[in-house]
Amino acid sequence: MKKTIKRSLALLMALFICIGLLPTVQIAAANETVDYVTGSNGYIYNWGTREEDATFLSPNAKAFYSGNNTYDKLSSYTGGTGTSDAPNSQLYKQLKNLMVSNHKYQTTYDATRSMYQYTDCENSGKTSKKISCFYTGKEIGPSWDGGKTWNREHTWPNSKGLGGNDENDIMMLRPTDSRTNSSRGNKAYGEGSGFYDPNSASNGTLDLRGDVARIFLYVYVRWGNVNGNGQYTAWGSSGVIQSLDILLKWMKEDPVDTWELGRNDSVQSITGTRNVFVDYPEFAFLLFGKDIPANMTTPSGEAKNAVSCSHNYVAGNVVGATCTAGGYTPYTCSLCGDSYQGNITNQLGHNYVNDTCTRCNAKKAALPGNGDKVVIYAPAHDMALSATKISEYYNKGVDVSGGFGSVTANEIWVVTVNADGSYSFVSESGKKLALAGDYNSLNDTGANDDWTITPKSGADGIFYIKNVARGNYLEWYASKNNWSTYVTSDLSDLFEISFHVVKSNNQVCSHTNTRIEGASAATCTGHGHTGRTVCTACGVTVNAGSVINATGHNYVNAKCTVCGAAQPGVEQTEPTNPTNPTDPSEAPTETPTETPTETPTETPTETPTETPTETPSEPTVESPCDPPVKVPAIDPDKDPNNSTVIILIVVGVIVVAGVAVAVTLVLKKKRKAE
Question: Considering only Cβ atoms within 10 Å of each terminal Cβ, which end of the chain, N or C, has fewer?
Fold first, then answer.
């Protein structure tokens, strides 16, 4: 009898423990969100904690990657094969466009002083809005004391390629104590003598190697700061970071922590854009044509879906360069089908004879003549310059992506060629194109109304328009959605200008005669393009064309009849030639060695290392007076159906049933005894 009662009590206690656990687990599993704390200005306080691995994406991060910018879509674009061609890759251009197009507000150097209390605090500013020093982690500020105790560190040194709004970008500009900033200097980040180890200032209490690698990649892509023009170098001892190997090593060894993710949220609330390499470190590897480490911890968890392959790339048919497009050799892995473009050559450029290209029959785009009526537009953004002001200083842009049929007298400019060879422009509505005396803004009354027009080398029909008196270049200011000017040595596509010639009756060109440029055929693994349709009379792109999807392999006897690639995982009937490293028939010989080596190495390394890192974060208890910061305790990728909760409920039901049976037996025995 006593034993039965003891057992019943034990079962009841187990039941109570399970029931007590259920609410906590349910809340943690369902709570994949962060309760943002914001100031009156709408800026989000950094909610994260340093050195706490981020194993989930925040709500703002998830919302940022939508439509054509999901991870699946972006990761389908081809990266480079290394540092030399990565900046010319599709993936680089797509990531850059994503970050640039969302960069709605660009911070100034002075303004950042008051923003760090949001971006660089910890735990939603619970420590009186103190700032966490980037390199040491000690609390500094937030009050500005003229740089005596803390100042701002250009993590990408100012002397190595910065020279515009990039040097004031709060994503890269970090608060540090003055002594650390001074000792850091402008050495390249790296390991060993002659390099600056970002972990040294904290004596190893903070691991910042991954942080600086991700900052480097942001500047490298968002601002296009790659090797160029002898002004600076991104790589090497005289550059910003030691090497690509070091960068990717640091990316893997120092995962994103919740403080980095929280800072990304905070910066986005100020500027509108994010560092994509914080949310998806996977892009760092894809950008340079490297395999994503399958055991790397990332906020999205996409690295766990990566499949390693000891690639055996086979060269395909060379795609020749044209007047307007570069050439390349496609390489395809015979084992997994992965592909990339190598041996990239420059476009040929036009060979004009009597203003007609002997190769493609394109007509040479001439400079506008005296009395011509033109539409001035940025072809990379399809925005025309209007004489209409959107504020006291800036001019409106008119979308001409659908053609020039909607332009008005405000977008048609009459050209005057001056005696000194410079140009002046007056709109048909009577407004002249001039520049203010001491600002970058345009006006219609200033004296600075003479401009030079310089063709862009190797790009027919693209020009740079520079103010004679001020030296500023006309630009489409994409992040502010207006036309302005800027002094710069980095002539990006914001400064590339084309002229659309309008006929004397002010009707746009009818585009009767056209030509096709840049057409390429699709291959088994590479996309082709129909080519763009260009008007031979005015040089305007009438139709941008469309992508032709890759045709895919046509396997017969485990071998593609089109390109010769071997069918992965299928043994060929043809004799193999293991001595030929480019022979696709090696696929069967490599598959058996790959399978046994991957399974044992992945299972033991992933399972034990991930579970302990997430569990300790669950019992964190906050003061009821503090703003709530919630971090998920269960990774939805590992438990997508809340199986832990279901199992506990089932166990609870079984225990309750067992207790009921035990109590019934006890009562029956007691009655018999009476």
Answer: C
Global pTM value: 0.50
pLDDT at site 198: 94
CA 189 to chain centre: 22
Residues 6+ apart with CB under 8 A from 46: 118, 119, 120, 121, 122, 124, 125, 259, 262, 263, 265, 266
Q: Please give the Cα distance from 452 to 449 (Å, whole number).
A: 10
Give residue 461's Cα distance to chain centre: 30
| Side-chain half-sphere CA neighbours of 55 within 13 A | 25
Nearest to 427 by CA among 369, 386, 474, 398: 386
Instruction: Find tokens 């006006």 and name the residue.
Output: 443
What does the chain come to in residues?
674
Could you tell me if 450 and 423 are in contact, meaning their C-beta atoms sit under 8 angstroms apart?
yes
pLDDT for res 295? 82
**DSSP-assigned states of every residue in 15-43:** HHHHHHHHHHHHHHHH-------B-TTSP
Strand runs labelled E in 400-548: 413-417, 423-427, 434-435, 442-443, 451-455, 463-467, 473-477, 482-486, 498-502, 514-517, 528-529, 532-535, 541-543, 547-548
CA-wise closest residue to 261 among 100, 64, 31:
64
Helix ranges (H only) for 31-157 are 59-64, 71-74, 90-101, 112-119
Q: What is the pLDDT of residue 657?
A: 65
Q: What pLDDT is attached to residue 326?
A: 75
pLDDT 10s digits, 571-603 = 655 444 444 444 433 334 443 444 344 434 443
pLDDT for residue 415: 92
CA-based R_g, the chain, Å: 31
What is the structure's pLDDT at 251? 96
- Between CA 180 and CA 128 the distance in angstroms is 23
Q: Measured between alpha carbons, how far is 195 from 250 in angstroms, rounded to an integer?
A: 14
State which amino acid sits at residue 259.
Answer: W
Whether 328 contacts 343, CB under 8 Å: yes
pLDDT for res 577: 44
Both structure tokens of 243: 């090497």
Cα separation, 257 vs 208, whole angstroms: 10
Q: How far is CA 463 from the centre of its chain?
A: 28
φ, ψ of residue 321 in degrees (nearest 5): -75, 150
Q: Which amino acid is at 245?
A: D
Residue 580's pLDDT is what? 40
Angstrom distance (rounded) from CA 391 to CA 131: 36
Helix-strand-coil split of the chain, %, nearest 5: 30, 20, 50
Q: Which residues of the chain have pLDDT under 50?
A: 1-9, 11-12, 15-31, 229, 504-507, 574-645
